[in-house]
Amino acid sequence: MKALRFEQFGTPDVLVHRDIPVPALNAGEVLVKVHAAAINPSDVKIVSGLFGGSVPRTPGRDFAGVVVEGVLAGKDVWGSGAGFGFRRDGAHAEYVVLPASWLSEKPAGLSMVEAAAVGAPFITAWHALVDVGSLKAGETLLITGGLGAVGRAAIQIARHLGARTIVAARGKAVSEADETIDISKKDLPEAVRALTWGKGADVVLDAVGGPLFEPALKSLALGGRQLVITSVGQKRVEFDLADFYHNRSKLLGVDTAKLTGEEIAGLLDKLKVAFDGASFKKPPVRPWRFDQAADAYRSTATGEAAEKNVLVMP
Questions:
Q1: Cα→Cα distances 202→98, 244, 275, Å
Q2: What is the spatial distance between Cα 37 and Cα 135, in angstroms, rounded to a whole number?
Q3: How many degrees, rounded to 5, is the angle at CA 67 between CA 66 and CA 71?
Q4: Does the pLDDT at position 306 exceed 80?
Q5: Consecutive H or E run containing 311
Q6: β-strand partners of 93
Q7: How many Å separate Cα 283 from the centre of its chain?
Q8: All structural domains of the chain
Q9: Is the CB of residue 282 less than 8 Å from the CB of residue 260?
Q10: What is the pLDDT of residues 243-291, one digit of tens each?
């Protein structure tokens, strides 16, 4: 089978196409013919070596395809493999092997390319907002980095739950959130309070961290929860500890890389219900031929595309 491989860590330039054997099945596993596989920023980081692991390796977390061997043979499925790309070979190949318990049936209303684009962004947003943050109807959610794939997914999930959304972005931004704050012109905590009648946000999904961490924390309502999924540019942050405990704020870390394959499949099953019920919109996608994989990785690395880059397999 044809597979995208990295034999050393580095930039997308290290990616090469190789012909490798179709992997053999172990007990309880299935073989999936991959039709489409998304490229996430985390895939770029995996190739760079940020997540560790060993080489040579096939990257790729998110995919959609058809089971061709195993207990679910003939089923259209989607998946987001636990440890794909660093603990085991991923889905940027013609075939992928994984335990049957890691799979979820694909939503009927999504094409293979669209289904492949859902994985990591929606899993991260759902796990953060629902499982960790317990976002409720009537609450206000502030999203930093709300123009990215996770932020766009979070807006849809919050609306599905009956929550109000505010996005913080730099410059004039187009967003489906209820409100948008241009943080290049406005102080974030002041602007959030102006939009919440002085209360502040019940929940913050911080998809930026770094310099926006403390302003986001100061935007919380009394007893609010801040969910942190990354820190761009700098890992260390500072904040006023007295303000933090006086506000009874809660700081919660979210790392979907720690989810098991079964947990990810369970999240995808919940997302399938929402997509089948038309609660969520189809994700914007930019398809790439498999032989354009390195260019697609570069596009993802630079963040130049508003759509999700998706490899279409031969």
A1: 39, 14, 26
A2: 30
A3: 155
A4: no
A5: strand 308-312
A6: 3
A7: 12
A8: 2-120+259-312 (3.90.180.10), 133-253 (3.40.50.720)
A9: no
A10: 999 999 999 999 998 999 999 999 999 999 999 999 999 999 999 999 9
